[in-house]
Write a structure and sequence with these properties.
Blueprint lengths: L8 H6 L4 H10 L9 H32 L7 E8 L2 E10 L5 H12 L11 E4 L3 E4 L7 H8 L8 H13 L9 E5 L9 E7 L2 E7 L10 E4 L10 E9 L1 H8 L11 H8 L3 H9 L7 E9 L1
Antiparallel strand pairs: 1-2, 1-10, 2-9, 3-4, 4-8, 5-8, 5-9, 6-7
Length: 300
């Protein structure tokens, strides 16, 4: 019977390797492709994805900044022919931001053109401040409302203007109401909180909330002469003056009612929410002269 004898470890160690056996592994090593590890591959993919996302975010921020600082102007432009005490003062031409403020610019252009049934014609500028002049807009009651209703228009304050104002403030940093801007007033940041009062209903006393002051109806507008960050809390920018800043300067030179907010009587009345203080405040900085829009409309 043949017996198979396994070589001992000592015999294997003492066995001489041929030159071919020694050189073969070194010849084959360069031919074996060096694949990266799975962890290294995932890390590279992650870095690439992060880089792509960062690039896209930077591009998006650049687009938003461009829209905030230099919004595109619509083809249709608004014009306002102004007179001071019956004397023509000149024409103001306004470019509208139909892309960045579509709701606000649509409302403004509707009141300029008269498509809402009522327009800014024969309406006055009611406030002249160091940084801007303000137009009274149209009334939310009386004949103005009746004229608007004939065309199915609603000139009360729509909530979508507030939404557009909030979106603009969220996307655009810094001062929005810069020199030359035209904005519509959409909110009153100084409006006092409602006052609780007791009312009788069906033989029972109930606590009700009495509103003090009025909200703007989104038809008043301002034309900014110098950067006015104080307007950012109340006004939505809808365009800018393209021609006629000299006319705005003429309006700014009109003599106005002196502001008297430092009076202790006014301060107490304002503190307790006296309606007479609200009425008095509306008269501050009001021009003594009649500053009126004689004609307005849209042009190409």
């Amino acid at each position: 019977m043949n017996q198979i004898i396994n070589p001992s470890p000592v015999a294997l160690q003492s066995k001489k390797l041929s030159r071919r056996a020694l050189t073969l592994p070194f010849l084959l090593t360069p031919l074996i492709p060096q694949f990266p590890s799975l962890a290294q591959s995932n890390e590279e993919n992650s870095n690439s994805s992060t880089s792509n996302l960062s690039t896209e975010a930077n591009a998006a921020n650049t687009v938003i900044n461009d829209l905030c600082t230099n919004p595109p102007i619509s083809a249709k432009k608004a014009f306002l022919d102004v007179s001071i005490d019956g004397e023509p003062a000149g024409r103001i031409v306004i470019g509208l931001y139909g892309e960045t403020a579509p709701l606000g610019s649509s409302r403004f252009s509707g009141l300029v053109s008269g498509s809402t049934g009522i327009s800014y014609r024969r309406k006055e500028f009611v406030k002249i401040m160091p940084n801007y002049v303000q137009h009274a807009g149209v009334r939310s009651y009386g004949v103005d409302v009746e004229l608007a209703q004939r065309t199915g228009s609603d000139i009360s304050q729509p909530n979508n203007l507030i939404t557009e104002w909030e979106l603009t403030n969220k996307n655009c940093t810094g001062t929005k109401n810069v020199s030359g801007s035209v904005s519509i007033v959409v909110r009153n940041p100084n409006k006092p909180a409602p006052k609780p009062k007791l009312v009788a209903r069906k033989g029972k006393l109930e606590i009700d909330q009495e509103q003090v002051g009025l909200d703007p109806n989104g038809t008043e507008f301002v034309i900014v002469m110098k950067d006015a960050p104080e307007l950012d809390e109340s006004s939505l920018v809808v365009g800018k003056v393209l021609q006629g800043m000299d006319v705005v300067q003429k309006i700014a030179l009109v003599r106005t009612v002196k502001e008297n907010t430092s009076s202790p009587y006014f301060r107490v009345a304002k503190l307790i929410g006296d309606k007479r203080a609200v009425v008095a405040e509306r008269g501050f900085n009001r021009p003594y002269s009649k500053v009126i829009i004689n004609n307005c409309g849209l042009i190409d």
